[in-house]
Amino acid sequence: MSRPLFKIREHGKYGFIDATGEVVIEPQYVAVEDFYNGFARVQLNDRLVHLDHLGRPLLRHTFNYIGLFEEHLARARVVRMWGYMDPRGRLAIPVQFYDAGDFSEGVAAVNIDGLYGYIDQWGNEVIEPNFDWAGEFSEGLAPVRIREQEGYINRSGDMVILPRFDDAQPFQGNVAVVVQDEKWGLIDKEGKLLIKPQFDLIEGYTNGEFFDGMAVASRDGKYGFINNEGEIVVPPSYDFAGDFGEGLALVEKDGLFGYVDKSGKLAIPLRFEDAGVFSGELAQVRKNGRWGFMDRDGRVVIAPRFEEVMPFRNGLAWCIEDDKWEYIDQWGDVVWREEGLGSRE
């Protein structure tokens, strides 16, 4: 497994360091994304290209757009048609589809002559294109659309949950989010409603995505939580709620932030100006307009001195201090700091 890398900025250019703060890929790109499944997308000559952990760009072919690598293949577009590239930058599946999804459970949804079906990793058709839209397989099932309604098929292409939903999402374990009349709920693998659609769809929110087996649920402007058994653990009662991380989730009421555990009990009192998700046993917390980090007991262990912060990832947290990027470790020590002139993005 490749060592984790972290994006950095110097003099308006971007590169990457390792967890010790050593520069691995010199800042030279005008835009970069985080590494994902072994590659990072960077902007090169007004186009996205994949970069490996050694800083080598995949340049065998020129694409108008490239997706992320999933199961060792990334969808790639030339003009209006799609194919797939492999980790060496070679065109593994020729450009021939009107649309293409990411690979999941060994197959990907593609559009052939206006209808969606599925191909395997060699480009062979494994489920005939019979659908108006098709999503990713998860837990052996995939959401598909026929006319204006969505249901689920199995790996043989058989419809096992009849289309009756306005929208259907891939399964998360034994449950899936479905939408009817602009409200979402949960079904099981037999298509039985565990929670009838009743929660609000909020743009930019997770809308039923589970973290630590819990999902935020909003109704009438209030927030609570459901578990992946289809139970409402915390009825919507908070003014805001964040996703669970390491057994705790951020909640807010009357302008103060704290944390609840999976039973719905308030584990850290509502007393902060703002806060974030737990990761690496620490969470972002804001006091007097500055950000620091606290532990699971609610003790501030890294003093608030930052203008902006992100959660810890692979032992480091990205921060901005005095308009400069830096990375700190879990003791608050600076591992790397931007030397060039900082500029807020």
Give the SSE layout.
Elements: E1 6-10, E2 13-17, E3 23-29, E4 40-44, E5 47-51, E6 65-66, E7 74-78, E8 81-85, E9 91-97, E10 99-100, E11 107-112, E12 115-120, E13 125-131, E14 133-134, E15 142-146, E16 149-153, E17 159-165, E18 167-168, E19 176-180, E20 183-187, E21 193-200, E22 214-219, E23 222-227, E24 232-238, E25 240-245, E26 248-253, E27 256-261, E28 266-272, E29 274-275, E30 283-287, E31 290-294, E32 300-306, E33 308-309, E34 317-321, E35 324-328, E36 334-337
Antiparallel strand pairs: 1-2, 2-3, 4-5, 6-7, 7-8, 8-9, 10-11, 11-12, 12-13, 14-15, 15-16, 16-17, 18-19, 19-20, 20-21, 22-23, 23-24, 25-26, 26-27, 27-28, 29-30, 30-31, 31-32, 33-34, 34-35, 35-36
Low-pLDDT segments, ≥5 res: none
- Large-scale geometry: flat
Give the biggest beta sheet.
4 strands, antiparallel
Mean pLDDT rating: 95
Proportion of residues in extended strands: over 45%
**What class do helices, strands and sheet pairing give?**
mainly beta
Cα-atom radius of gyration: 23 Å
Number of strands: 36
Helical proportion? under 10%
Counting DSSP H or I runs of 4 or more residues, the number of helices is 0
In the sheet with the most strands, the strands line up as 6-7-8-9
Distance N to C terminus: 32 Å
